[in-house]
Amino acid sequence: MNNELHQKYKDITFPQELVSLFSDIVSSDETARKVCAYIGKTEQQQRKDEGVTRGVTINDIVENVMVERRTRVNERGRTYSYDQTKTNIHRKTAERQVDKLLDMSLLYYQSVKPLKFLYLTKRGWQVVEEIIKRSANKN
User: Which of 40, 55, 68, 139 could bond to 128 as cystine, CB 3.0-4.6 Å?
Assistant: First the structure.
């Protein structure tokens, strides 16, 4: 969602059923959950430190979000062995997850050439709070 569309619908919030639905969707995908949580944590930290938010870029997500994935370790002839390693998220994966969250209207962006600064919407904050509440109840 771009900034103009966000300004038009910025006061709209989800009913509780939709918050639960989107929380389930985001929670089911580990990468989407980590990206959404990272954007929320970073925005909150920026507000606390500076009083304003400057947003999050795709590069910030790529540098700071870690995921577990299988990486090729060694090669023996035509066979490969793979190990689970914790590495940074790929740029393409981060872009896909951000596009997914933008389409769900959980994020909006401000385009400052050549960057896009990402921010959570009110609806995005609702979903992040629900995910945090659920994870606290599991523990």
Answer: 40
Residue listed under structure tokens 């989107």: 22
| Amino acid letter, residue 58 | I
Other residues' Cβ atoms within 10 Å of the Cβ of residue 27: 16
Q: Name 2's bridge partners.
A: 109
Question: For residue 90, what is the DSSP state?
Answer: P
Q: Which long-range contacts (CB under 8 A, 24 or more apart) does 96-105 make?
A: 97/29, 97/31, 97/32, 97/35, 98/35, 98/58, 98/61, 100/32, 101/26, 101/32, 101/35, 101/36, 102/1, 104/22, 104/25, 104/26, 105/1, 105/9
Q: pLDDT tens digits, residue range 19-64?
A: 999 999 999 999 999 999 999 999 989 888 887 788 899 999 999 9
For residues 52 and 2, what is the distance between their CA atoms, to the nearest angstrom? Answer: 19
